[in-house]
UniProtKB/TrEMBL annotation, chains A, B:
Entry keyword Metal-binding: no
SUPFAM superfamilies xref list: Winged helix' DNA-binding domain (SSF46785)
Keyword annotations: Cytoplasm, DNA-binding, Transcription, Transcription regulation
Annotated compartments: Cytoplasm
Broad class of where this protein is predominantly found: cytoplasm
Ranges in coiled-coil conformation: none
HTH marR-type domain residues: 29-159
Protein name according to UniProt: MarR family transcriptional regulator
Keyword Transcription regulation part of the UniProt annotation: yes
Species: Streptomyces thermogriseus
Amino acid sequence: MARQSYPGGMTTEVPQDAAAQDAEWLRLDRQICFSLHAASRAFNGVYRAVLEELGLTYPQYLVMLVLWEHGETPVKKLGEHLRLDSGTLSPLLKRLEAAGLVHRERSTRDERSVVVRPTEQGGALRARALRVPRRIAAATGLTPEEIRDLRTLLDRLTTALDTAAREGVPDRG
Amino acid sequence: MARQSYPGGMTTEVPQDAAAQDAEWLRLDRQICFSLHAASRAFNGVYRAVLEELGLTYPQYLVMLVLWEHGETPVKKLGEHLRLDSGTLSPLLKRLEAAGLVHRERSTRDERSVVVRPTEQGGALRARALRVPRRIAAATGLTPEEIRDLRTLLDRLTTALDTAAREGVPDRG
DNA sequence: CGCAATCAAGTTGTGCACAACTAAATGGCG
DNA sequence: CGCCATTTAGTTGTGCACAACTTGATTGCG
């Protein structure tokens, strides 16, 4: 997995003309950075438009998707599903609760835990959300196969990146 | 481009058992949503770790990449390159200026425009940034071919999504 | 010319992401 | 039992994204 060959036939071994190669890498990095960043925000923008009529933001929609699929869920579990910590979830859930879509209640079995469940209104929203995914898929202009490929690639990417982040990113291969 | 067939052999024509299909789509949407959202944040996390020693955030790095490649650039142009508006760029540039990395000056030719250029210190930072892309690429665990494929897919995605966002996302195909 | 439309940057307000921290409950161990 | 490490939510502070708005400069047209 390590030791791959790269653009100029270069390997992760110490190259001879590192400076010139580095400059080229900087250009490539700019491109991939931009692509990913732009795609992420473009996706966000389409979801924003589609979710507007539901009164949900994109992260709020993700939370509701989990609740619709699994029902009553502790904040901790929500965080694991979504890879979000309480610093993000607490205020988000507070807003969902203020909107009357979810109910939060401290567990009696373990009073550290807070259990979140959709309210009746929150459950009813699912019916209106059902047509969202089709519209998003249409907006991507990708075939189902391409969507699947993209997802596979993204999941591999996430796993690798998370591992790298945990173990530290080496300066040289 | 429109009118694609989907999972159950369904087309964008009015389907017969829309409800059951919709429920399945909701599950798929949860998956692709999560994948993209997670990948985006995982990428961000790795950049955060690598850029920490440069004292840059990820968006600040993107700005510096543009400035290193093109030199003196008006805020407007920066925004076009990065697809960011002044509401994001103004405070970001203010922080970069406070850090001594860029200089901002109102153009004398057109006093609406503000021109940004790297300071000497900002230019010097490029040397230290040169090794960043290699480390990121290593962290992805992807081959150069896969990186290229990913970029192609992401660019197509962004174009399609931006078009859909501009033209409005249809409820039914 | 004079004025309305346009344009660039900046400001304000809302929401998300995340690091660092606090507070309270729990569980294990001497 | 009593104490401490761990766990779970929540809070605080910083920075980004974006919509809506303000301000001031420029442009174009009657």
